[in-house]
From TrEMBL:
Protein origin, superkingdom: Eukaryota
Record-linked Gene3D superfamilies: Ribonuclease Inhibitor
InterPro entries reported for this sequence: LRR_dom_sf
Organism: Rotaria sordida
Name of the protein described by the UniProt record: Uncharacterized protein
Length: 25
């Protein structure tokens, strides 16, 4: 489980996270 906040990862991190979640589905 990732323990990150949106403020920590920023826009690029948010995009990466969204892509990662899509891939895992």
């Amino acid at each position: 489980m990732l323990n990150l906040r949106w403020n920590d990862i920023g826009p690029n991190g948010a995009k990466w996270l969204a892509d990662a979640l899509e891939t895992n589905q």
